[in-house]
Amino acid sequence: MGASMSERQGAAVVIIGGGVTGLSAGWWLARAGVDVLVLERGIVGWEASGRNGGGATHVYSPFGLEEQRLWPQMDELLGYPTEYQPYRIGVALTEPQLALARRWAEIGATRGFRWEALDRRQLKELVPIVGDSAIGGRTCISAGTPIPNARCRRTHGPCKITAAGSCSTRR
């Protein structure tokens, strides 16, 4: 059984932030035998990671393809379901957002990502709760994403990470 936060004296590496990047760094370091402590002030995977793609998957990142190579393996590596989905959907509310989505698709295609444009009807079929202000969007078939706090949330409800690999119920 691990030490409680009040008993813990430190670690070789302390990571501030329990989002996709912090948890991933902590997990890979711990897997390599490094003593790691991940600190999160709020709900694990909720801040930027819970509201955007988190991680490196965007067409400008040189790490995007490596991330996408690893995500489908994570259920097996971690030993529990990450709720990984092998696609992403982007919603455009304005013409400039739609134009940007088209540009991302063009750039992404040069890096191996498969994108498809969505008109308003297609978007509504895929995401029934999307509002009427959505004018279209895009789906990236080859760029999936997990739910960073899936295991902790499923086991404990909203929670905080107290050390790499352990969660405690948020009070």
Tell me about this structure.
- The chain has 171 residues and is an alpha+beta fold.
- The protein contains 7 helices and 7 strands.
- The strands form 3 sheets. The protein has a 3-stranded antiparallel sheet. Strands 1-2 form a two-stranded parallel sheet. It has a two-stranded antiparallel sheet with strand order 6-7.
- Strand 1, helix 1 and strand 2 (36-39) form a beta-alpha-beta unit.
- The longest helix has 16 residues, at 95-110.
- Residues 155-171 have low confidence and may be disordered.
Please give a quick description of this structure.
The protein has 171 residues and is α+β, with helices and mostly antiparallel strands.
Looking at the structure, what is the overall shape? elongated
Q: pLDDT below 50 for ≥5 consecutive residues: which ranges? A: 155-171
Mean pLDDT: 75
Biggest sheet layout: 3 strands, antiparallel
Structural class: alpha+beta
- The number of strands is 7
Jot down its keywords.
single chain; 171 residues; alpha+beta; two-stranded parallel ribbon; 7 helices
Topology:
Layout: E1 13-16, H1 20-31, E2 36-39, H2 48-51, H3 64-70, H4 74-78, E3 88-92, H5 95-110, E4 115-119, H6 120-126, E5 136-140, H7 150-156, E6 159-163, E7 166-169
Parallel strand pairs: 1-2
Antiparallel strand pairs: 3-5, 4-5, 6-7
